[in-house]
Amino acid sequence: MTRLLPIVAAACLLGCLLWGFLEARADPIVRRADIALPDWPAGAPPLRLVLLSDLHAGNLAVTPARLGRVVAQVNALRPDLILIAGDFTPGSETIDAATASATLAPLKRLRARLGVVAVPGNHDHWTGLGAVRTALDAAGVTLLANQAAVRGPLAIAAVDDDYSEHARTAPTLAAARRLPGAKLVLSHSPDIAPLLPPDFPLLLAGHTHCGQVVIPFYGSLDPVSRYQDRYRCGVIREGARRVIVTAGIGGSLPFRLNAPPDLWLLALGPASGR
């Protein structure tokens, strides 16, 4: 019996590794939420928004074929607008524009009448934001960093990544405040949430991978947040503010445990009484 213990332990470890690899490559779960926003423009219809994040394209978890499947899955939801909360690349080694463009080419097939808007993540800064920007331009994705833009009924404050210390939250919110439309914030890390004033009631973010490796009765092994698990995953309500954190699609390591990939389909519209 004692001799069998190492074999059983090795089998359990291999099983866990295989499970984590398969979970990391699984098609993302589509999570849904209906959100009413103040200052919705009078007469503007509701809007279907897809939130993606953390593609980390280019490793075993996110091959071009898998990214293509995700694109098809998103298009099948018929979104009006697609927002991507950063981390298009894995790791931290510098990449060139040609490599980034080839890796992210499937994004050209994304379809939404109001387009695709993205912000950078920490890995995009680490691997080379210039190359990522070139690749996204070629794919028809608008990359905004500490900038504001109008898309349909929305005024989007696109805040650069807080984790890599590129966020300029206050001036970006000020720029969005000058634009017409219901206000929302798009950023890679959710850690800017406590900085948001009441007139920005919705933050869409990624970065955490919903913990990536989550141990039952313990939590995530590496929260990658100064707030630990406070903004780990899903819908977080803080008074009138909602923070939505997606698990994302990939990861620098092709391994997930109890944190499956996901994307969000949000139905946005006016607050009641409008």
TrEMBL record:
GO terms for MF: metal ion binding; UDP-2,3-diacylglucosamine hydrolase activity
Pfam families: Metallophos
Gene3D superfamilies reported in the protein's UniProt record: 3.60.21.10
Domain of life: Bacteria
Cellular component per GO, a single term: membrane
Domain Calcineurin-like phosphoesterase residues, every copy: 47-210
InterPro entries: Calcineurin-like_PHP, Metallo-depent_PP-like, Metallophosphoesterase_sf
Signal peptide limits: none
Keywords, sorted A to Z: Hydrolase, Metal-binding
Gene Ontology biological process: lipid A biosynthetic process
PANTHER family reported for this sequence: PHOSPHODIESTERASE YAEI, TRANSMEMBRANE PROTEIN WITH METALLOPHOSPHOESTERASE DOMAIN-RELATED
Name of the protein: Phosphohydrolase
Organism: Sphingomonas gei
Lineage, top ranks: Bacteria, Pseudomonadati, Pseudomonadota, Alphaproteobacteria, Sphingomonadales
